[in-house]
Design brief:
The structure is a homodimer of 359-residue chains. Chain A is of the alpha/beta class. Chain A has 3 domains: 69 residues, no CATH class; 213 residues, P-loop containing nucleotide triphosphate hydrolases (Rossmann fold, 3-Layer(aba) Sandwich), CATH 3.40.50; 52 residues, Helix Hairpins, CATH 1.10.287. Helix content of chain A is 50%, strand content 10%. Chain A contains 15 helices and 7 strands. In chain A, strands 3-2-4-1-5-6-7 form a 7-stranded parallel β-sheet, sandwiched between helices. In chain A, helix 7 links the parallel strand 2 and strand 3. Chain A starts with a helix and ends in a 7-residue tail after the last helix. The interface between A and B is large, with 79 and 80 residues.
């Protein structure tokens, strides 16, 4: 697996580390990053995440090697993973900074990750610019990491799932995963966190247009932001409306937790510590009822088959030999001259041609 | 394709038809069922649907042959496809009977189909028992068909999509697709219809527990049923609550249609004709704005890739040679000792082994 460490380790490690590797060509079972990672070394964490985001085959193998130790190490971990979503203008980063400073003040180690399939490394997208959370970014107990750039949600989600584990191994006991709410990314984030928080700005109509279908219904907690100054009354009104709406949704859920709505102000700080207490209460209840582990187990299996499905489709769609045939079929389906199921069968037959170990 | 008609056509056609086929071994381009189907023959429609539900390879080929003419025939069709869902006890069949009789009274041809992945032919499941809609089932302009029995949602959905087309070719201009609301079947039905109607019983708590997440948000219309007798006030209250909730959801949608809530009574008939007028208005607006065709085009392409994904996963999971390996990996993922993405990659590598036309 690690036949030529000189080449394999020329990246993404620093000079010093490369020297170490050259001296220790055979380093046994545990990946060399592992010890510094669990010792809480930030640089090691950053490197481990970068490694897990790489698409190069040798990095993938390395990352799998590192992750096997990380997962074993995390087995008894009881971290709190918080998903945060909200439409543009809901004040997500201001809120994360406010509650993040509160969380670290209480001596918790906090990692802030992001899921933004639209982000590009070069662009000034979500969290790419740490100046958005100026105070939190200089806080020693906080680690902020921009969204991985993988082009499509499946890749971003995969990388973020790995990053969560790496942060937990690094001793971060609270992980916030922020999403911009593009398409299906909220559902992905809800599927990788223990509690899903929806931020809603006061006001209605235009401001709320960014809230995607189905999001209100998966929220464990709704926080109406900007409840200060002359928006105080508006925020309270929105709170009442959402409380009413929530009574109609989610009452079928199998957890005993009743999702609720609160108002917060990231400026005055009002409601921030209450929001954190509520999250902790939720966390405790989940652990004591065994739902914490159940939910995570289910999430992991869901991810497995989601990844398999994603990758299979990806493979089929990248099947360049049949690209024209695919285009033609999709156009025929769109225009209604062939049934979607018939076209699907044709695509599959072609793709699976040559595979003979299928029953 | 039709080399031995004697064998191919021994089923599902009647004796008379078999004789015809034996006399006409070569029947050219159009499938022999097609003419009777578009002439409005109910027996031909029933046979065509049965054929489309068959999993035998020769029936699949036949069905594809028939469907190619059917789809061409339906291209300019402007039928109204109505999806109807609601929790158990919402009074779905009573409502469908009431509005169905109203629809046929106005001289429309109405087909009622069902999507119920849990149904078994032998069991007394959804719509299997036509006595549920006694009056409608003897109505000449109505055609009622129980849910296909395919075991999983993908198969049921595929068969229902074909049945919709066959009914439309048979001259049915209104198609109601009912769902029991098991898991994802509501979303599937919303994805194959032009308007999605949610039925809600008056009352709250227990009665509403059957409404799944996300369903309220995809509804184009919510009808509170049983608005008669001593439930009248309760129904009006539920209407107000849902009207408020709807203001918070769906306001981001790209259609100009504002979903709304009405009360109906299938017993007194109050609200039934209004509900039908509203559906027609929706239909007209969709057609005049071009959203009718757009939505259908999008639905078809969605179905194509859904089917492809479903089938690919099905193939992989049926890969009996690797069944034990799959089980082991899934258990490892559940227990958190391997990353879902790593396990997915292992499964894929094994499955795709031997395929060399993948880029």
């Amino acid at each position: 697996m690690f036949r030529n460490p000189k080449i394999i380790y020329s990246w993404p490690y620093g000079q010093h580390f490369c020297k170490y590797l050259r001296r220790n060509a055979s380093f046994g079972e545990v990946h060399p990053l592992f010890e510094s990672l669990i010792a809480g070394n930030r640089a090691a964490l950053a490197r481990a995440i970068t490694l897990s985001e790489s698409t190069l085959e040798r990095h993938k193998q390395e990352s799998a090697h590192l992750m096997s130790s990380v997962l074993k190490h995390n087995l008894q971990n009881r971290s709190l993973r918080i998903g945060i979503s909200g439409p543009p203008g809901a004040g997500k980063s201001t809120f994360i900074e406010a509650i993040g400073l509160h969380i670290t003040e209480l001596n918790n180690k906090l990692a802030v990750l992001a899921v933004d399939p639209s982000s590009t490394r070069s662009g000034g997208s979500l969290l790419a610019d740490k100046t958005r959370m100026q105070q939190l970014s200089v806080e020693k107990l906080a680690y902020i990491r921009p969204s991985p750039n993988r082009g499509h949600l499946g890749g971003v989600a995969r990388a973020t799932n790995a990053a969560i584990q790496l942060c937990e191994a690094g001793g971060y006991n609270v992980i916030i995963v922020e999403t911009v709410g593009a398409g299906q990314s909220e559902i992905a984030v809800a599927n990788m966190t223990d509690i899903f928080v929806l931020l809603v700005p006061p006001g209605s109509g235009d401001e709320l247009q960014g809230i995607k279908k189905g999001i209100v219904e998966v929220a464990d907690m709704i926080l109406v932001t900007k409840a200060d100054g002359n928006l105080k009354t508006a925020a309270r009104l929105v709170k009442t409306e959402y409380s009413r709406a929530l009574r109609l949704l989610r009452n079928h859920d199998d957890t005993s937790w009743k999702p609720f709505v609160q108002t917060v102000s990231s400026i005055s700080g009002k409601g921030i510590s209450d929001a954190w207490s509520d999250m902790l209460e939720f966390h405790q209840e989940m652990i004591s009822t065994g739902k914490y582990q159940d939910r995570r187990k289910k999430q992991r299996v869901t991810w497995l088959w989601d990844h398999v499905q994603d990758e299979l489709l990806e493979h089929l769609r990248k099947d360049t030999l049949n690209a024209k045939f695919q285009e033609k079929l999709e156009a025929d389906v769109r225009n209604g001259v062939i049934l979607p199921s018939t076209a699907a069968q044709k695509l599959l037959n072609l793709f699976l041609k040559g595979k003979d170990n299928i029953s």
